[in-house]
Target: Endonuclease MutS2
Amino acid sequence: MPKDFAFLEWDQLKERLLPYLKTEKARENLKTLQPFFSLEKALVLRDKTFFIWQELEKGRKIELPNLPSLEELFQKSSKRGFFLPKEVSQLALWIETALHLANFLENSPFSELISYLPDLELLYQRLKEIFELERGELRDRASYKLYLIRKKRRELEEELIFRIERLKEFYWKKGYLNEDLYLQKEGRYVLPAKPEFKNKIRGVIRGFSQSGATVFIEPLSIIELTNELEEVIWQEEKEVLRILKEISQEIFLLERAFRRIEEIIADFDLALAKALLGRIYRGVFPEIVKNGTLILEEAFHPLLFFRALEREMPFPVKNNYYLERALLITGPNLGGKTVTLKTIGISVLMALNGFLIPAKKAVIPFFSKILVDLGDEQDLWEGESSFSSHLKNLKRILEKADEETLVLLDEPGRGTNPEEGAALIWAIIERLLDKGAKIVLTTHSHLLKSLSSQRKEFQFAKVDFDRKNYAPTYKLDYGYLGDSHAFDMAKKIGIEEEILERAKEFLQNKDFFALEERYLKEIEALENLKRTFEERLKTLEREKANLEKTKEALKKRMEEEIKALESKWQEEFLKFLNSLPREISRKKALEKFQEFLEKSIPSPFEETFKEGDKVYVEPFKCEGIIQKLGEKKAEILSGNIKLEVPLRALKKTNKTSLPFNIQKNKIFLKEEVFNSKETINLIGEDVETALTLLEKKINECFMRKKGVLLVIHGHGTGKLRSALRKYLTEHPLVESIEEAPPNEGGGGATRVYLAKKE
Model:
């Protein structure tokens, strides 16, 4: 097995499947099973396990019987020329299992099995007619000849037993026998006679006991009957052999089908084992992507889980693992750095080979290779140092790595001068990055920490250390560079303080360690700030919730007051309508209605002029725009001509709409009377962009129950205004539109009245 898989404990993971396997074929396959590195194969294997897992989750009970190797059965029988009855029973068990599985394998990754069943089912029916399958014996009616032979055999055996019983009783009463029984010697019935009475019993001596105290005599009266029985038994064996050879020829013709269903069921068996194993650690199915970020949320190493389960130890700490291009992990020894490497590596192997991942969420990019440098590889027999072996492994990794490779390096550069080793390792890492490989690296080297911080590809994480209790927490924190905590560990073990202080004096770069100490204090301060921020955030969230409640209460109150005001205005308007004489001209009615409005509607609805308004000039019968506005006169620009006219000669070309609609003697207030207007400014946008933005705004206003939208488009060439107004008149959420009043932009804007949301 490649050393990379050995480092990641692939064999130990496979062993966890053995107790769940029921077919000999699956057990044999598992022994030599190597991880697959094919995206297509990975998706197929995941789908197979997922199908079975779904069936188990539905409550389906899936059990396989213990099934022997069909390869061995066919090999033995082909040498012999036929199958023995018990072997036929084992073949029948394979067919029964296949038929049972076929009940729910349609439209599944194992549906190929169904195509082999018609011929095998016909064979199965024939086998049931010929054999007692549970006992592994031929039925009497396997053939008519066998039926007659066995009938004759039973008759002879009954007659033989009857005669030997009578003879035994007779000679026992005479005192010629040592025991009141009869025996069989070499297939023939004999009586245990005393030596001194051997001549008293007529028969053939078939032997003596070891002590010589008993003579075994076959009585003459049953010899012929025994000979006849032996002849019948020989005939039976001959007929049985004929039948077995005949049925075996039918089985041999279906050998290919048997071999294929063995492969499919063994494959099913292995997938079932993966599903059952995954249910124990409550794993998830990974999302396998062509490339991208590796994500493992709340993940743990499966073997640590099973070890904890079996030894009643604490379960492994769950961690989040993220890998974009490169991840540098630092921290103390025994803090979990190597476990992190193994967890990431074994999770990738599991994802690509149909296992559930021990995590809450898993996104695994496809890797065609996993290359690992882990542990001490010193080879005493080859006279090779650990560093030499280490370098050979790194050379192998460099040669094989590409953009689809995951490289796991555990404290590389060990076994030689730390500075030289770190420099060499960094050069190798740079080459691996250039090749496009993804890298996870653990280290204590300050040089590697410093160099990696200068590369944008690197993320950083540290295994946490409890400085109060001088113990690792096995928790992975991202965005931090960790220390090895050698002095802390030494202090915990009990090394004298004086020795520790003396050791610190030998540090060549005191500034660095002073800086690191300050860094740790700043990290602690940041953690305190983080806790304070989280507490304040919770307080703000509570206040926000209270404000939302107050807002809802105010909104409800406003709606109630609006309804009350609407009812009051409806009553007022109905009174006004009723006060009008029946006989009244349309013009007169409108005049009175205008008087009513002037009394009822407050001043904000009265028309006023301002610079920029578009007006109609009565004396000159033309339209223009107010350039300058005086107390009694205004300067008007009409085309290229400037006019100075009194204000009384001007009329606005756009009329302010009434704040309500009138339908069948009822007045319905428009939303804008009570709700603030929404505004959208589309000046400077092209028509297509403006329409897209307007559609989004209309939908937003409708969902927020805003009744009025002011669309500012400017004058310009008029192209944008025309396109927008045409679009608005056809929009299903728009009730009506009108040119905006002067104080809202006049001809450079359009007021839109939206339909109410039910």
